[in-house]
Automatic annotation (TrEMBL):
<feature type="domain" description="UspA">
    <location>
        <begin position="162"/>
        <end position="296"/>
    </location>
</feature>
<dbReference type="Pfam" id="PF00582">
    <property type="entry name" value="Usp"/>
</dbReference>
<dbReference type="InterPro" id="IPR014729">
    <property type="entry name" value="Rossmann-like_a/b/a_fold"/>
</dbReference>
<dbReference type="InterPro" id="IPR006016">
    <property type="entry name" value="UspA"/>
</dbReference>
<dbReference type="InterPro" id="IPR006015">
    <property type="entry name" value="Universal_stress_UspA"/>
</dbReference>
<protein>
    <submittedName>
        <fullName>Universal stress protein</fullName>
    </submittedName>
</protein>
<feature type="domain" description="UspA">
    <location>
        <begin position="1"/>
        <end position="150"/>
    </location>
</feature>
<comment type="similarity">
    <text>Belongs to the universal stress protein A family.</text>
</comment>
Length: 309
């Protein structure tokens, strides 16, 4: 399913969990793995100094500094490289991290980008700050390929992956996410759980819906899932459909825990606007920050469409 995986890392401890997933996934898929670090932001114009993204210190840019950074990365991931180094390349660049990550992903035609929700260890990581890092947000917004976001150690990802949760709001963007989730489930041979949470806070049901209105909304959602997704699944029979009412991100997290999900797949946004203009949805952001398993953000249908051809 993946031939080339780009793992973007700052080399800090908050990237340890994404590193484990990136190396394990690359090994399982027999994929090439690019271990990528952006050295820093040019301090001004064409200055020969950069601001180190890990320490915040100004560093003189040169071959020696770049070689030192790559050596540090090699030492940091020494154990993983001993096991999977023959298909791993360490690369670095200078510039704005999100721009350089996206540039490399396009140039290398990466199938998947793996990142943490926040790469700044001094800020405590995304799960402590309750916000996603700017680099993560920009990459998820503009990436043409799926972005796998890991915000904490995954204790259930032993088989990468064994239970996939696809969450839908029936948006056009969710259709691409479904294609990714279905392909992953078929490729791995694992169950696919299709989930929809009826949003009781949206006002679509009249502000304070009756139980009859809720039941009608759930029945309609189940019917839409059958027509929109199940009808495309052919002979693939390892799936379940579940619809619940409540606050969407809360219900998604509860359902993922119940099913011991080790991958949640969601669309980057729900609005019907060009992917490059869409901001990350609030439901996805809350799931990313609180999920105990990796979350795949699908923003663009190109990767799915190209892979299907």
């Amino acid at each position: 399913m993946f031939k080339k995986i780009l793992f973007a890392t700052s080399g800090t401890p908050v990237c340890d969990s994404p590193a484990k997933i990136a190396f394990d996934l690359a090994e399982r898929e027999d994929a090439e793995l690019i271990l990528f670090h952006v050295l820093g932001v040019p301090s001004r114009g064409f200055s020969l100094e950069v601001t180190d993204v890990r320490t915040g210190d100004r560093e003189g840019l040169g071959d020696d500094y770049e070689a030192w950074v790559r050596e540090e990365l090699s030492n940091t991931y020494d154990n993983q490289l001993k096991q999977y180094g023959y298909k791993t390349r360490i690369q670095s660049a200078v510039g704005v991290p999100a721009t350089e990550i996206l540039r490399l992903a396009r140039r290398e035609n990466a199938d998947l980008i793996v990142m943490g929700a926040n790469t700044r260890s001094d800020e405590g990581g995304g799960r402590h700050r309750s916000i996603m890092g700017n680099t993560m947000l920009e990459v998820a917004k503009r990436a043409k390929c799926p972005v796998l976001i890991i915000n904490r150690p995954c204790n259930t990802c032993w088989n990468l992956f064994s239970n996939i949760i696809f969450c839908t709001d029936f948006s056009k963007a969710a259709d691409a996410a479904f294609q990714f989730a279905l392909k992953a489930a078929k490729d791995i041979g694992c169950p696919l759980y299709i989930f929809h949470a009826l949003n009781l806070q949206s006002g679509d049901l009249g502000g304070k819906p009756t139980q009859a209105q809720i039941e009608a909304g759930l029945a309609e959602a189940r019917e839409r899932i059958q027509k929109r997704y199940v009808s495309q699944m052919g002979e693939f029979g390892m799936f379940e459909v579940e619809c619940r009412e409540g606050v969407p991100y809360v219900e998604i997290l509860k359902y993922a825990r119940e099913k011991e999900g080790d991958l949640v797949v969601m669309a980057h946004h729900s609005q019907d606007i060009p992917p490059e203009e869409a901001e990350i949805g609030s439901t996805l952001e809350e799931v990313v920050l609180r999920s105990s398993c990796p979350v795949a953000s699908i923003n663009h249908p190109d990767w799915v469409a190209a892979d299907a051809r």
